[in-house]
Amino acid sequence: MTHIASVLAGFGFKDQNAGTWIGSRALNSDQFISSFSPVDGQLIGSVSETTEAQYHEVIAAAQAAQVLWREVPAPKRGEAVRVFGNKLREQKEALGMLVSYEMGKSYQEGLGEVQEMIDICDYAVGLSRQLTGLTIKSERPDHFMMEQWHPVGLVGIISAFNFPVAVWAWNSALAWICGDACVWKASEKVPMCALACQKIWNEVSAELQLPEGLSTIVTGGRDLGVWMAEDGRIPVISATGSIRMGKDVATRVGSRLGRSILELGGNNAMIITDTADLKMTVTAAVFGAVGTAGQRCTSTRRLIIHSSIYEKVCDAIVNAYKQIKIGSPLDAKNHMGPLIDTDAVGMYLQSLDAVEKAGGRFLVKGGALKNQASACYVSPSIAEVENHWDIVQHETFAPLLYVMKYETLEEAIALQNGVPQGLSSAIMTGSMQEAHRFLSAGGSDCGIANANIGTSGAEIGGAFGGEKETGGGRESGSDAWKGYMRRQTNTLNYGHSLPLAQGIEFNI
Predict the structure, then answer these.
(1) pLDDT tens digits for 172-184?
(2) Which one from 102, 263, 469, 475 is the annotated catalytic residue?
(3) Which of 178, 297, 376, 446 is catalytic?
(4) 407 flagged as catalytic
(5) Which of 102, 125, 168, 386 is the most buried (most CB within 10 A)?
(6) pLDDT tens digits, residue range 139-172?
């Protein structure tokens, strides 16, 4: 762990660290959250919780910074994001290792997460010159109409433990080029990753002499999230997490008629047709199910397999599971690391019991692993189930994969759509007709629908998000940037008379 020690030292971490940041200005308190690595159970560090007074100080500073930032031309704002992306390139290995160590995903996945940050920065830089509105033909003579997009103000970002840095970057990079300031509440399970990101941003801010409050961090639990959700000074709240959390955030933000961008749970299915390429299918299914120990919102939860190849596919996947190496995610030979904490292990074991009680048949029965570096390691499971069972209808955030049969494509699509969540979906098929049907309006009802790739692993160029209980929010690419701005319609009269719309006459 010598390398980890040098990474922590490189970010300037101490035993106790400030958890409230207004740019480079740190605010301490006497209450701390401790971060333990699921990799080896060791204490990484403690982070101070944000007090209510500090929270209001953060919001005031962010508001003051945003007033200055909104006057900076968008391409100049993009320049700051470009410099930030380059700083991330320099720190990719260190930040990727910290993500792996604090969250438990493989080092390779940690590097991939930082690469997502770099990619969204590159995307945002170009976008800073393309925040375009429409020109509209007026029905009145000598009138010009257009649409503009203006900064919304503050963006509150509530992120989850499973992507400790990338989801923040998806939001902040776009918010910054849109002219907003960001207030980030990271998951209290991975606070050190947030501090590392802030330290990297602070280098950019110092070099370019940016307003200090453009990037701020607050640390705490549910109460802090409630303050943000109910705060009318934050027009937009982007929240990633459980469906329960999302419903609470949506209710509180909605009660003040604010806007929320929600990225909540997934219960993602892959349909495997009788024309699917078996090798591709097994790789996609296994990575989707056990990558990040099943703790991605896009993890594959359900396989819906054509009855004619059901046994063949199940046998191939069971054999693949026998080859999965479980251990430290910092060791490149391992495929799967730990769950985030012992609470997650407990929930996984409860789900296995629930499957058994419902009548499920285990093809692979996993469980908690002993004699590991921490108590967070588990082995994955595969169970034959019925789609309508309560346990199947709810997402288990762990490496638990369900399998079931289908006869017709329409039946498979109905099974795929027959859950409350609607994030990611996939079909593995050699038939163009089946693929297009799955991607059509009568096919998958998810925000992400793929053909011949798995449910897990999205590129930043597309809008990321889902439907139904997944929340309906969109982040990252496409036109997701509009969520961080306010729309304004303008009409300019360049004539010398005042004709009214709809032919109305008003003579005085």
Answers:
(1) 999 999 999 999 9
(2) 263
(3) 297
(4) no
(5) 102
(6) 999 999 999 999 999 999 999 999 999 999 999 9
